[in-house]
Fold these 3 entries.
Entry 1:
Amino acid sequence: MSKEMNIEDYRSSLDDPASRRYGTFSYLPEMNAGRLREQIEYMIARGWAPAIEHVEVEHAADHYWYMWKLPMFGEQGIDRVIAEVAACHAAWPRHLVRLIGYDRKKQSQGLSVVVHRPA
């Protein structure tokens, strides 16, 4: 006996800011200070290099985002990463800001999550 699945299209539009989604984590509740700290702790515990990127909302689906400084290779300070995320957001308040954890062993992103969305 098979179960019938009802898969629906998720309606989103550039004209409707409330409908926009930017990757898997964007379906979760907004990133707050506690969740951001947990993501950074997770990243650093695995030896991943934190990096911060930003982009205009209308270009979020493009392949390339702007890099905020260089990746923080070897960084162990959670508060230092949080300060850089805040500095990027302060410099680009109308941009999306994304935190990435680069896994040097697998040569790929181990984590990528939007941490700030413009109001």
Entry 2:
Amino acid sequence: MRKYREEIEKYIDDHRDEMVEDIIRLCSINSQRSEYVEGAPFGEGPKRALALALNLAEKYGFEITNYDNYVGAVDLNDREKGLDILAHLDVVPEGEGWSVTAPFEPKEIDGKIYGRGTSDDKGPAVAALFALRAVRDLGIPVKKNTRLVLGTDEECGSSCIQYYYKKEQEAPMTFSPDGEFPVVNIEKGRLQGEFSAALEDGGDKRLVSIEAGTKVNVVPPKAKAVIEGFDIDEVEEKAKAVAEETGIKFSFDLVPVFEITALGANAHASTPDSGNNAITGLLELLCRLEFSPSKKIETIKKLYKLMPHGDTSGENLGIAVEDERSGALTLAFSMLNLKNNIMHGFFDCRIPVSGDGEKILKTVSEKFKGIDIEFLEDTVVKPHEVDGNSPFVKTLLSIYEDYTGLKGECLAMGGGTYVHDIENGVAFGAVFPGTDTKMHGADEFVVIDELVAAAKIFAQAIVELCE
């Protein structure tokens, strides 16, 4: 048995209820990013979540540091840097379709905690805090410091962690409990495409507006359009056919305007196949309606041909690529707005390690130029990879194997975490193989037993990496 394992397991088990209580308190705070106010760079919600997390850590006897409400830090001791654990307290929007509980009214039901942020990433953040508590309270000797870093803007670009690293140096080793077990040592590259166009209108049967999507990295569950000049019967007939083919559900409101609502299923943009894209479902319907001829409709149809419903690999854009180490390129058409004849949209593309990001960027730019839409993005985030045979990674895999009895191996993922730009950074948990926590979706949850196991694994990692 690994050194101190018995003591660690007993400590975490004894504090299980306290851990659940802290997660529920944190997940009761709506910590979506909102408008800047003085002292709250990402809005009041993230600031409140950070304040609560730091208060908890301080109550448990840790030294804390607040970096201007961008990031908070919790230190195990005052020794030299050994390990950083990076977690985040902000969340994605609620989305549609919650059935077990309201998004910010977390509930413990049948061994799970349901609520927005339970899995991504407040639950794992609390598990890491309790891992620190176990090592400290048990008096386990370590020669180096472990610092838990709690950010508040991971879902909208990670500017919080960029702010932090302008003030602090990276630790020799870093992991983030914001991925999957065993160890994610490869994160795909990323192109978040933005585009716009001014579209000329005309005729009696018009497309007035489109409003769809909430975040670039979320497959949209809802999309709305306003049209003019149509009878409900002809729209319903076309909508019925599209619904049967795509699984998208449509509803209509005729007062005061003819509004179409498309309902799909949200998902993380890195796994678009696990959702059902309401934007592309709506565009499929709009492209079948017989609008009066106009540049607007012509351009919308050309755009839809580049990113049609069900094409989550970039085939129609001419950018599909796949490799054995990191899988296939993924594409999610995530936001679209059309108002006053100005169209503005975004898509999210995750690129495997074999993909040529600059070539993909050039291909996409030329495709949009060919349909008279201005492509506004000129940078690509490169893939991230850490040597799977390094002592750091091998230690994490060995601990995981011993605690779970499962095979420890390196994984690749499309999602990006705080460690994407950190030289020796990997994602380590907290989702276990075979568990779909519905991250970014409705009824997000965490399995309490799995989070307890993660806390034990994190504590053992702290001991062995900082001894």
Entry 3:
Amino acid sequence: ATLKNIETLGEQSAAGLPEISGIVLLEVPTVSALAKSGLKVGDVILQCQDMKIATFKQLLQVTKDFQYLGELKLVVHRNQNKVQLIIKEH
């Protein structure tokens, strides 16, 4: 997948976010574990394992810390709503 930090007021506004924070998905290959778990282009990752995620670096650290679980709980911003997803290793 291709991910990018939300870094500007324009990106915040385009995503409909209340603050400049999170990671937007620019590309999600249809055969990836992310797509199979329900993530879509345009989703903005806000939380992982109940921790606020503001940057890609934070997401990498949380995924590393919890990789032993075999799945991750995400909260994403999609179409002005928060959606909870479980990302499983496939």
